[in-house]
Amino acid sequence: MTAVSSQQSRYHPTIIALHWGVLLLMIGVYASMELREFWPRGSTLREGLKLVHYSLGLTVFALVIARIVIRLRTTTPAVTPPLSPLLKLGATGAHLALYAFMIAMPLLGWATLSAEGKSIIFFGIPIFPIAPVSETLTEFFEETHELIGDIGYFLIGAHAAAALYHHYIRRDNTLVRMAPFLDPGPKAPL
Ligand code: HEM
Ligand code: HEM
């Protein structure tokens, strides 16, 4: 893959597609788990929603690995006007946290099912366990998965709010770099 020049106004198209694709997957991952509460334990629909959760969550994992590889082989377009060192640090920290989240959550979910001794089904295909069967490990993985799942709401919410801050208040090209549907032209200052 050829490197993308920093003169380009947007992220690499594959990065953009993966970014918004993962947003849709995340909506499905969270919705499937939140909605399961509406059906009684053991019901077909509730179990079906859990299978959807596992399959979509594992898809996030596969895509984030691909995304990191592509991201490391392409360069990021510059932000105009440039960010202060503090804003830059905050953005990098938030992005690293989001990448860590997209890796840790599927692994913790997969490890939970493994430690419970349950089968792990990815779109109908059984896959291998990644942890030994253990009650202690189940509890640890499940609780950590739940805790980071809650943190994820905050992380994604703050990330989306930051994108809006950049676009509407700071009026830089941060959002435009990730959004092919927005006008890339320079903005007049407020
Ligand atoms: C981006 C990926 C993922 C996110 C954001 C996520 C998020 C969540 C959330 C919010 C819950 C509800 C926690 C609660 O009870 O309040 C949950 C539960 C759970 N998740 Fe995930 N998850 C992800 C991936 C996975 C994967 C890949 C698996 C397994 C292959 C998995 C297995 C589970 C299990 C076993 C539960 C507990 C379900 C139950 O028995 O009620 N998760 N997850
Ligand atoms: C809710 C809607 C969302 C909006 C409006 C949004 C917006 C953006 C924007 C504008 C950027 C470019 C930031 C920059 O280059 O400084 C970006 C980057 C990023 N977003 Fe989102 N995002 C959203 C959801 C998500 C979700 C759900 C995730 C993952 C859980 C995510 C993960 C990331 C990551 C990791 C980057 C850094 C890209 C890189 O440099 O490799 N975003 N997002």
Layout: helices, strands, pairs:
Layout: H1 13-35, H2 44-72, H3 85-116, E1 120-122, E2 125-127, H4 135-169, H5 174-178
Helix pairs in contact: 1-2, 2-3, 3-4
Describe this structure in words.
- The chain has five helices and two strands.
- The protein is mainly α and 190 residues long.
- The chain has one domain: Fumarate Reductase Cytochrome B subunit (Up-down Bundle).
- A hairpin with a 2-residue loop joins strand 1 and strand 2.
- The longest helix has 35 residues.
Summarize this entry quickly.
By secondary structure, this protein is mainly α. The chain has helices spanning 13-35, 44-72, 85-116, 135-169, 174-178; strands at 120-122, 125-127.
Instruction: Please report the first level of CATH classification, the CATH class.
Output: Mainly Alpha
CA-atom Rg in angstroms = 19 Å
Structural class: mainly alpha
**Topology-level CATH name:** Fumarate Reductase Cytochrome B subunit
Q: Would you list the SSEs in sequence order as H and E?
A: HHHEEHH
- Unreliable stretches (pLDDT < 50, length at least 5) are 1-6
Strand content: under 5%
Helix content: 55-70%
The DSSP helix count reads 5
> What molecules are bound to this protein?
protoporphyrin IX containing FE
Strand count, sense and barrel status of the largest sheet are: 2 strands, antiparallel
Characteristics:
single chain; 190 residues; mainly alpha; Fumarate Reductase Cytochrome B subunit; two-stranded antiparallel ribbon; 5 helices; elongated; binds protoporphyrin IX containing FE
